[in-house]
Amino acid sequence: MRDVRQDSDNYVRRWFFDDHFDLIAWYEQDGTLYGFQLCYDKPDDEKALTWFRDRGLSHHLVDAGEDCPWVNRTPMLTESDGRSHMARLLTSFRNSGGGLATELQMLIEQKIVEYGGQELRKK
Question: Maximum CA pair distance of the chain?
Fold first, then answer.
């Protein structure tokens, strides 16, 4: 996505999307990846896997709020375990074709496996 709003002087935010995923990546000014948020199962049952170098991994359900065009809807994240979704997420992410930089693609796959636990480490 072009012209992504930048909310911080410390990080550059990039946004990638397709029919299945939204990926927001935050980079430090020197180009080092600081973190990412991978949103999936959109639009009906959206979830988010988030990783920041200094905070680790987390998983949330995305509550989009009211389904009304006249209401200002700010999505809210509610904590969710999500480990049971990781095998399907990994397969879907690998099949998405992406167009992401290899380093970013590999890091996200690694974090999905890390969050998914022991059963994914065998794949």
Answer: 48
